[in-house]
C-alpha cells in the first residue's frame, strides 16, 4: 500500500499496542507524517517504535489527552489533516478494580479531545477543512454479550458489561453526538480482540506464552469456554488506514478477524506451538524434567471475572464490501508469528512474566 497524499496524522495513544502498530504502518507504508501523543502509562511500549522513532516524519509528545492546552498547542503547531484517536485505558480487570482512570481517560479525555478538535476544525478553510476527519477507534465490547448464534453488526444495540466497555460506549456516543450536533467530520470503528507483537503481558495470549515459558500457572477464567473473535494487529491497522482514508463520514465500521475461538482452545494452541519452539524448556513434555506433562499441565482454571461476556463475534462484511478490506492472516498463521516473537524475546531476556 503506497499513499502519496503526505497528510499530517495526529495519533493519540500511539505508544500503546495497537497505536504503535498503526504508527509503524503509517511511517513504513505511507508518505504521511505522524504526531504521536501518549501519556506513557504502564501499558505503553516505546520499544515498539524503535524502528521508526528517528524518522523525519515522526514526532512524539508525552502528554495526557485530558490536557486541553497541550492539545491546543499541538493542533495549532502541526495543523493535522487527520486525528486517529486510540488513547484509552483498555484492560477489563483493571476497570473492575479501579474504574476512575477509565472514566477519566476514555470519557473525559475523549470529550476534551473532541472539543479541542472542534475549535481547530472551526478555523480551517478550503481544502484543509474539506479533508479533515476525526477517526475514533473503539471495541466490540460495547455491544455486550452474544448468544451462541449471530454476530455483531454496525446496527447492534449497545449493552456494555464492564466499566471498561461502558466507558468506551460513552466515548462512542460522544463522537457521534459531536458529528450530529456540531458537524465535526468523524468516522468510527469497532474491533474484535487484537493480538500480535508488543502486546502487554497482562493480556491472554502474551500472558499464556510468558507464564508457560517461566513455568508459572496459566490462568483461565471460569471454564474457558468464552468465545472471542481474534484479529491480528497488523491486519487491524491496515483496516484503520482504510477507514481513515476512505470511510464515509458519520459511519461506523466493524473490524473482525473472522477467527472465533474458545479461550481454552487459544491457550492449548499456544501450548502446542511452544512444544515445537521450546522443546528444551523444562516445562515442555519434550524436556527431560517433564516428559509426561508438558506446557498444558500449567493451565489453571480460576474464578470467573464478574460480568464476563460469554461470546463476541464481529460481522465485518460492511468494511469488506465498501472498502475492500479483509484480514490477511488466519488465526493459525498470526498466532504462530506471535508466539515465535515472544519466545525470541524471552530467550533474549527482553521479557519476563510478572
How would you state the average pLDDT, rounded? Answer: 93
CATH superfamily of the domain at 8-198 and 233-258 and 310-328: NAD(P)-binding Rossmann-like Domain
CATH fold-level label of the domain at 8-198 and 233-258 and 310-328: Rossmann fold
- CATH class of the domain at 8-198 and 233-258 and 310-328 reads Alpha Beta
CATH A-level architecture of the domain at 8-198 and 233-258 and 310-328 = 3-Layer(aba) Sandwich
Task: Give me the secondary-structure category.
Answer: alpha/beta
Count of extended strands? 12
Walkthrough of the structure:
The chain has 354 residues and is of the alpha/beta class. The protein has a domain at 8-198 and 233-258 and 310-328: Rossmann fold (3-Layer(aba) Sandwich), CATH 3.40.50.720. It is built from eleven helices and twelve strands. It has helices spanning 17-29, 68-78, 92-97, 100-122, 126-131, 163-182, 204-214, 233-246, 263-277, 317-323, 331-347, and strands at 8-12, 33-38, 58-62, 82-85, 133-139, 186-191, 193-195, 218-221, 227-232, 252-255, 260-262, 299-302. The strands form three sheets. The protein has a seven-stranded parallel sheet, sandwiched between helices. Strands 7-9-11 form a three-stranded mixed sheet.
Amino acid at each position: 500500500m503506497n499513499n502519496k497524499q503526505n497528510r499530517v496524522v495526529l495519533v493519540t495513544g500511539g505508544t500503546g499496542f495497537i497505536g504503535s502498530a498503526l504508527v509503524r504502518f503509517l511511517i513504513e507504508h505511507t508518505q504521511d507524517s505522524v504526531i504521536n501523543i501518549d501519556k506513557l502509562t504502564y501499558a505503553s511500549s516505546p520499544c515498539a517504535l524503535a524502528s521508526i522513532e528517528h524518522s523525519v516524519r515522526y514526532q512524539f509528545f508525552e502528554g495526557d489527552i485530558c490536557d486541553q492546552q497541550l492539545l491546543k498547542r499541538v493542533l495549532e503547531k502541526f495543523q493535522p489533516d487527520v486525528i486517529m484517536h486510540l488513547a484509552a485505558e483498555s484492560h477489563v480487570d483493571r476497570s473492575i478494580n479501579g474504574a476512575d482512570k477509565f472514566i477519566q481517560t476514555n470519557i473525559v479525555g475523549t470529550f476534551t479531545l473532541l472539543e479541542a478538535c472542534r475549535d481547530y476544525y472551526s478555523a480551517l478553510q478550503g481544502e484543509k477543512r474539506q479533508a479533515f476527519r476525526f477517526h475514533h477507534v473503539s471495541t466490540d465490547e460495547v455491544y455486550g454479550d452474544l448468544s451462541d448464534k449471530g454476530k455483531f453488526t454496525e446496527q447492534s444495540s449497545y449493552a456494555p458489561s464492564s466499566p471498561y466497555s461502558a466507558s468506551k460506549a460513552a466515548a462512542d456516543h460522544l463522537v457521534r453526538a459531536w458529528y450530529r450536533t456540531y458537524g465535526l467530520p468523524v468516522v468510527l470503528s469497532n474491533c474484535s480482540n487484537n493480538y500480535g507483537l508488543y502486546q502487554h503481558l497482562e493480556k491472554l495470549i502474551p500472558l499464556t506464552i510468558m507464564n508457560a515459558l517461566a513455568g508459572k500457572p496459566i490462568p483461565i477464567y471460569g471454564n474457558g469456554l468464552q468465545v472471542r473473535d481474534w484479529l491480528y494487529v497488523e491486519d487491524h491497522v491496515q483496516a484503520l488506514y482504510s477507514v481513515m482514508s476512505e470511510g464515509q463520514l458519520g459511519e461506523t465500521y466493524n473490524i473482525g478477524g473472522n477467527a472465533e475461538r474458545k479461550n481454552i482452545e487459544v491457550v492449548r494452541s499456544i501450548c502446542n506451538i511452544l512444544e515445537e519452539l521450546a522443546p528444551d524448556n523444562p516445562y515442555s513434555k519434550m524436556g527431560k524434567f517433564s516428559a509426561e506433562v508438558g506446557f498444558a499441565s500449567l493451565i489453571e482454571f480460576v474464578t470467573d471475572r464478574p460480568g464476563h461476556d460469554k461470546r463476541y463475534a464481529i460481522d465485518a462484511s460492511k468494511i469488506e464490501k465498501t472498502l475492500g478490506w479483509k484480514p490477511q492472516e488466519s488465526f493459525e498463521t498470526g498466532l504462530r508469528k506471535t508466539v515465535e516473537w515472544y519466545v525470541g524475546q524471552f530467550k533474549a531476556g527482553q521479557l519476563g512474566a510478572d
